[in-house]
Structure formats: C-alpha cells, structure tokens
User: Fold this.
Amino acid sequence: MSIFVRQDDVRRRNQFGIFMALRRHGPMSRTELSSATGLSASTVTVITNNLIVRGALAADGLGEISETRRGRPQVAVRPRSDHGVIAVLFIGLNIMQIALSDYSGEVFAFGERNPATRHMSAALLGETACAFLRAMLDMHLADRGPLLRISAAVEGIVDADRKTLLSSPVIDLLNVPLGDQLEEAFGVAVEVSNEGNMIAEALHWRAPERYGDNFAAVLLSMGVGMGLYLSGHMFTGVRSSAVEFGHTSFKPDGGLCRCGRRGCIEAYAGTYSLWRSVLGVAESELLDEDPPEDALDVMIARARLGEGAERRAFREAGKAIGTGLSNVFSLFDPIPLVFTGPGVAAMEFMEDSIRESLARACFGQPVPISVLDSYLNYRALIREGCLMRALVFLDQSVPEIGETRERAESAKQTG
Ligand SMILES: [Zn+2]
Assistant:
C-alpha cells in the first residue's frame, strides 16, 4: 500500500467536506465554509466553483446581509435545488409512502397508498410500487431536473447489497427483488434499507452532537426493531441488514412470533402480540386478522383506567424489551437509547418493567440507562434517513476538477 496520499483523494475528501457542511448547516458564504471545514479560502473557492460548473451547487446573494455590509456583496452557496430529484419510498404492511425531494433536500411532494401487501406476488409488489412512483413523478416532477436515485426502506431484513427483501412481514414471500424491479423500471440506482437502520441514520443526521457515536434506536410498532450506531457508523451485517432485535429470544418455546419462531421479543412487545394477549388468545397462536388501526390507542386508554389485561400485557412487553436490551448492553456496553414508534405512547406502563429486567440481568449492578429521546412519528424519521443516505451518495458522485463521472463512481466504490 502506498504511503503517499493521492492528490485527487485529498481533493475528493475536501469536496465532500464542503457538501457535508452545507447539508448540516444550510447555505453558507465561502468565508463561513472555510471556517466550518478548516480549508483555505482559495481551496473553498476552487472547489465551489467546480461544483457550480457541474450544476451541483448554486450561488446567490445573502439578501439582507449583503445590503448592510460594505464592499463586495456576500454570496451564499447551497446545493442546487434543480440539480435533480430523489425519490424516497417506504413500504410497510399494507402501506406505501413516497416523498419526492429536490437536491437541496427539500421535500416537495408526498403521497400515501394502502395496498393490501401481504398476499401479493413479488412481481405485484414491485409493480404496485412502480405505478405509485410513476404517478407521483408524472404529477410533481415538472422542471426540477431528472430523477437521480431511489432510496427505499422496508419493514424486514434486507440483503447486504441493499437490493433484495430477504424476509419481511410486509409480504408472505422470501427474497423479493424489489431493488432490481425499481432499477429496471426507472433506470436509476436504487438502495433498499431496513427501516430501523434508517431511523438511526436520521437521528445521526438530526443531531450528531446529541446522539454521539454510539446509540441504539428502538422501534416499537406492529413489530419491534432496532437501528444501531456504533463507533460513528451504522451497524449492518455481512450478509444482511442485521440487528433483528425483535427476533432475539426472550422466552425459549414461548409465544409464537410472526417470523415463525417462538419466544421472540416481538412475540410479547409487538402491537399484534399485545393485542393477542389482551384478547385472551393463546400465545401459541397467531391472530387470523391484523389488529385494528387504533389497537394501541384502545389498549393505552384501557390501561389508564386501572389494573387489567392491558397493564399486564404492557408489563410483559417491558420485560421482553428490558431483557433484549440487557443482551445488547452485554455485547456493546450500555449505550444511550432512543425509543421511536407508536409504542412509545405506552411507555408509562412499560418503563418500570424495562428497568427491572435490565437491573436484574446485569450481575445485580445498576445499569446506567440513558434515554435521550422518544419519537412517535417514526415514519418521518425513516423517510429522512433514506433521503440523507441518497443525498450523501449523490454528493460523493459529483466529479471533482478534471475528473469524469465514471472515475468519480469508481473512486467512490473503491474508497
Ligand atoms: Zn420472531
């Protein structure tokens, strides 16, 4: 390996640093960019000029600031909004959402449909998503530039190449080639991610200082998921999206999980398991019908009235979540937690049992539990995570000075 750093690697890193500063802090003058990135004023000028020529950045006057200052007017640079469009697609059980964003990161169109996904063929799932996206683009694309990339998130396990849905509660089939279907239909690169991972990605973007380099985002919804940020990177597996927190074991031979195994955390803490417990259905059975849309609200309202089946179900869910977290803490040390999803609304009935099972499981030592935040609207986080991943990928693909797009692509893949 060469000990010399190639000059174009340095330029590439500097260029990416400028994009990152603009993505995090919004439009900035070149002077501000210089202090935010630590790059010299002349380097910032050379790089931003190249990016303006490439159509990736735009420069405009800073409005009021330029009028109050003497001398040369201040010019702000920002990612150019009409450089192209990113489509974000979320697929859950019986729900599809699409958000279209311009290159500046602003969402200009949002739509939701509710197709019955579970018994679809793989082809139909892909066709349904494609038809929805085509309709959204026809209606909203206008003169915002070409579609650049599709970033999708699904409930379930995705392969490490981020193309195939290996296993998912969305559809009763394994190995659904969703990414390939979308790529073929639209002719742009597609990345399919696990929903929990995208939540972690969004939180990392929203407040890197607050969440730090190590945290776990726990998703409490129909299923139970987790996104893990470790040492400043989103953790994924060698073969798959991994971190199937909801399907780690709570009670061997316990309640039947919708993954087909028994005793998973989700078989006690997923909304469908809570509903099963409250209905008094044996835990060895899966419900014939999905719980109603408002199942969680109904259970929370009843739990607030006093002791009963709902409180017992939530306590058991807390025990399952606490046991699962103690396993995670044993592997990675206690890391800060962020709870997300509609299940967060029931935290008042789960918190004590979460803390109790955590305390019991770790050698009797008190476990420092740090809960940073709770977010009910987890789908907004998922879409935000998808969008930021796509924008970062596109930013890295913009050729630097004297470079062709092909070389930029290969540099990005090997680097
Ligand atoms: Zn399971």
In short: The pocket of zinc ion is lined by residues 247, 257, 259, 261, 264, 266 (CB under 6 Å). The longest strand covers residues 85-92. Confidence is low (pLDDT under 50) at residues 63-68. Residues 309-332 form the longest helix (24 residues).
